[in-house]
């Protein structure tokens, strides 16, 4: 049962200095992504790469960050780089990954923040449900493309690269249990792509469930001395994510948000806690706010375990058609 009033969040500990660090953040053009970018630069990150679908919007965020008085005073030489990254399109994800590998010698921290929650099934050029591809497959493709490069960077620096993925508590309640069970013989991704399987208010949570299942499958295959991979949920945060809702629902959500939602700054602290403060003990774990949580009841169930296994096999097969699989995927 979710507490209606969310506990207060403490700021990040003092003394974090990201001098020399290169960080990539997806969806840096609004909401928590923009706030995390600001916080990273205030913590003196040397280079922050804003991976955004709308480059003009990203450039205008970069300009406003360069004018931030704190950043101007404390991190005047920071490199703020905007790169196109549209998760609706696999080719864009792959072009972004190639550009990163070609232009940036090492990435120390990768924050997978971009995400959406649509109330109807829309299709990407690949034919996938858009909410699922943006939240799940395109993130997996980015990880697949970058894993050897992140590992190589960790070997050069002697400390693990970090991947922190913004998930959601909404993954704990899934339509796979009752409203839209995955039939035996049906693939998980096939299910997500079927019109009749789309449950509007649960699609977002289901797509985030896929993300959590993937993390639980991949993390044990990674060496945490090379890559620490975790996922976190920042709780309800006051961003524009609900702008996709129809007006009548937006009005209700806006009232709930006014009472309950955390300010975007606190959301930023929670995301950065997982990437900067949480240690190797967080590898392969889901953090609710800043606390490591147990796997959800569904994920622990026999059905959940079967879904996790199927999803891993299907996802690896799809990635294998798109790119060269890293050793950890085989
Ligand atoms: N807000 C909450 O209460 C809450 C709670 C739990 C988890 N989350 C998660 O937190 C993350 C950030 O969300 P937010 O609340 O900050 O929402 P937001 O303000 O709507 O930000 C979402 C970001 O994702 C980007 N994006 C959307 N579609 C994209 C695509 N196809 N390719 C690349 N980027 C794309 C957006 O780009 P544009 O700027 O171009 O629109 C935006 O920068 C999401 O993963 C969300 O699921 C949010």
From TrEMBL:
InterPro entries: NAD(P)-bd_dom_sf (IPR036291), SDR_fam (IPR002347). One of its GO terms (molecular function) is oxidoreductase activity. The keyword NADP applies. Keywords: NADP, Oxidoreductase. Belongs to the short-chain dehydrogenases/reductases (SDR) family. PANTHER family: DEHYDROGENASE_REDUCTASE FAMILY PROTEIN, PUTATIVE (AFU_ORTHOLOGUE AFUA_3G08550)-RELATED (PTHR24320:SF252), RETINOL DEHYDROGENASE (PTHR24320). This is Uncharacterized protein. It comes from Penicillium cinerascens.
């Amino acid at each position: 049962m979710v507490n209606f009033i969310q506990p207060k969040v403490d700021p990040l500990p003092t003394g974090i200095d990201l001098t020399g660090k290169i960080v990539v953040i997806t969806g840096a053009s609004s909401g928590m992504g923009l706030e995390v970018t600001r916080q990273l630069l205030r913590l003196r990150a040397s280079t922050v790469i804003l991976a955004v679908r709308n480059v003009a919007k990203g450039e205008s965020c970069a300009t406003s960050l360069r004018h931030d008085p704190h950043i101007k005073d404390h991190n005047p030489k920071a490199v703020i780089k905007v790169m196109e990254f549209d998760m609706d399109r696999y080719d864009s994800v792959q072009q972004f990954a190639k550009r990163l590998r070609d232009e940036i010698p090492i990435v120390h921290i990768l924050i997978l923040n971009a995400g959406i929650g649509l109330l109807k099934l829309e299709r990407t050029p690949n034919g996938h449900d858009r909410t699922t591809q943006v939240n799940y497959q395109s993130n997996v493709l980015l990880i697949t493309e970058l894993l050897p490069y992140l590992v190589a960077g960790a070997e050069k620096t002697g400390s693990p690269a970090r991947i922190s993925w913004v998930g959601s508590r909404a993954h704990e309640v899934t339509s796979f249990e009752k409203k839209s069970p995955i039939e035996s013989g049906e693939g998980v991704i096939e299910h997500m792509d079927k019109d009749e399987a789309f449950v509007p208010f649960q699609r977002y949570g289901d797509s985030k469930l896929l993300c959590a299942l993937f993390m639980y499958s991949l993390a044990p295959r990674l060496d945490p001395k090379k890559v620490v991979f975790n996922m976190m949920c920042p709780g309800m945060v006051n961003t524009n994510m609900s702008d996709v809702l129809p007006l009548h629902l937006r009005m209700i959500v806006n009232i709930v948000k006014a009472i309950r939602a955390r300010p975007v700054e606190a959301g930023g602290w929670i995301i950065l806690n997982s990437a900067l403060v949480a240690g190797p003990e967080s590898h392969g774990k889901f953090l609710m706010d800043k606390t490591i949580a147990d796997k959800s009841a569904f994920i622990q169930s026999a059905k959940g375990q079967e879904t996790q296994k199927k999803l891993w096999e299907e996802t690896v097969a799809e990635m294998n058609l798109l790119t060269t699989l890293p050793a950890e995927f085989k």
